[in-house]
Amino acid sequence: MWRFAWKNLLTRPLRTILALIGLSIPIVGVLGLYSVSGGLKNLVDDTLKQIQGVIVLRENAPSPVFSSLEADYVERIAQIPHVRSVAPEVWGIPPSIEGSSLIAKAAANELVGRLRGESREQRMQGMFDAIVLSGQDIPSHEGLNTAVFAKAMLPPEEGGGRFLERRDINENRVVISRKIAKDLANPDGTPKQVGQTLTIGSGDEAEAFEIIGIYDTGSMFLDVVIITDINVARRILKEPESKISCIYVEADDPRRMEEVSEAIEAEIPNIDARNMDEFSENFTRLLGDLDTFLLMIVSLALLVGVVGIVNTMLMSTTERFAEFGVLRTNGWSRGDVLLLVTAESAYLGLWAGLIGCGLTLGLVAIGNQFIGGGLQLIIGPGLIAFGLALSVVMGVLGGLYPAWRASRLVPMDAIRLGGH
To answer: pLDDT tens, 142-158?
Structure first.
């Protein structure tokens, strides 16, 4: 039966190939979607593992860039039991760097990316490339045990320089990432180095800032930050001294982080004290909603693939009415005919799945050579099995109606219809 079904497909190679293409393309879309989602989830998990404290933000603010808090919250939080360190920060998007407006650049990159037909992943990478400025209260950050950027400094032999110190208070000095050093390269194409300068601001407000250190966290979410003294950041971003963006809090015992987080929220209304588990859960929920939305779109392509299978099998069964009639007169039951046609559609689904999975594996391997920032697309055995199962199910579903239609034919009617 199964060998007979396979030979039937080989007798119509062009139609079989077109059906395989129609179903394998949406399978590539589904697997590609989940590989990006899995890669982002791993990237976020790896990033959050570097941040071990609690971040205090304005309630419902998605990130420090969009948060604004009263500066006197620092003293109130410092009085909460089991709080070890409290470090205020000011975050924002600088008006321009090296004469280029970052907001205009981000919008232009998105527009150009769409005009060039770049993938969603490529445009997403451009979005993550937006540089932000972080002003740190240097004395309080020196007392942190889990300072992310200070621990990610490049070694001296790689030109890492040093991190911010008290002598840098109110001074035009910055620490940048290796990625920013490459993106804002010198006119001769070489990356920025310690001792060189960055120009921040435009027109009469443009100022030169000495680069004193270079870090590398390996995460596209973190490697877009320029770090300077909090007072300098306020001057650049035109923020008053009474305002800060967020507060980084450490507990005296890491096991008390959740307890400290709850105590902060109880002490101060309208703020969120988020530990890294909360950030991970929120991002996972966001990715889940995005996956659902995109999967609905990809489902349209799956539907087209199923319609292609239906069309292929309908044309195949219509051309073979006489064959089915002869089989029935030779003792084949309706169930045998139903199984034969369903087996053919299942073969189409299986081979479409194998082709789709193979293409996805190749595209993921190629894509990972060009995607930076710690993001790696992931396609494991579980996802491959899901793609194959989905393809076979789609193939079987596409063949059910043609199989049922072929099985309902009366033998002599089938022979008569096949002769016309």
So the answer is: 988 888 889 889 998 89
Residue 56 dihedral angles phi and psi, to the nearest 5°? -95, 125
pTM of the model: 0.64
Give the Cα separation of 378 and 380 in Å (integer).
6
- Domain residue limits, the chain: 2-43+283-418, 54-274
pLDDT of residue 90 exceeding 90, the answer is: yes
CA distance 47 to 298: 29
Residues making up the chain, counted from first to last: 420
On whether the CB atoms of residues 192 and 184 are closer than 8 A, the answer is yes
Q: How far apart are CA 260 and CA 267, in angstroms?
A: 10
Non-local CB neighbours of 181 within 8 Å, separated by 6+ positions: 191, 192, 193, 211, 214
Element (H, E) at 310: helix 276-319
Among the residue ranges 6-10, 306-310, 398-402, the one predicted with the least confidence is 6-10
Residue 172 is given by DSSP the state: S
- Parallel, antiparallel, or unpaired for β 207-215 and 173-177? parallel
Q: Beta partners for 200? A: 97, 207
Give the tokens for residue 43: 């990237």
> Which structure tokens are listed for 129?
């490339």
Closest CA to 304 of 32, 35, 27: 27
